[in-house]
Specification:
This is 7,8-dihydroneopterin aldolase. It catalyses: 7,8-dihydroneopterin = 6-hydroxymethyl-7,8-dihydropterin + glycolaldehyde. It is a single chain. It is elongated, with a radius of gyration of 16 Å. The relative contact order is 0.22. It has 4 helices and 4 strands, in the order βαβαααββ. Helix 3 crosses helix 4. The longest helix has 15 residues. It is α+β, with helices and mostly antiparallel strands.
Length: 122
């Protein structure tokens, strides 16, 4: 059985991008997370020890996203996925969506970003 914890709309200012001004000034990014895990124990016990702390997940994701200035959004999202899977043994897989609403694209657009899904290797 796989259940899902979701965290949406985490706002982070970071310096990712190919353009020079992106690495100097930075911009706002939005991260959505879906954590796939078994919540059967915590749904019965009501104990934090039987699940994953949302606060700790956000802290881990934020640090992984901000620690290095990546050129590609794909790499930044991959760093978040890797950090979550290596930190939280209860999480079997993670879906990371990174939105870059102010990407330097010569067009009018609502949103742009990447979605990565990574799972723990058996």
């Amino acid at each position: 059985m796989t259940d899902t914890i979701f965290i949406r709309g985490v706002l982070i200012h970071a310096r990712h991008g190919v353009m020079e001004h992106e690495s100097e000034v930075g911009q706002r990014f939005v991260i959505d997370l879906e954590l796939y895990t078994d919540l059967s124990d915590s749904s019965r016990s009501d104990r934090l020890a039987d699940t994953v702390s949302y606060s700790d997940v956000v802290e881990t994701a934020t640090a992984a996203f901000k620690d290095v200035n990546y050129r590609l959004l794909e790499r930044a999202a991959g760093a978040v996925a890797d950090a979550i899977l290596s930190t939280f043994a209860r999480i079997r897989a993670v879906k990371v969506t990174v939105h870059k609403p102010h990407a330097p694209i010569a067009a009018i657009f609502e949103d742009v970003g990447v979605v990565l899904t990574r799972s723990r290797h058996p």
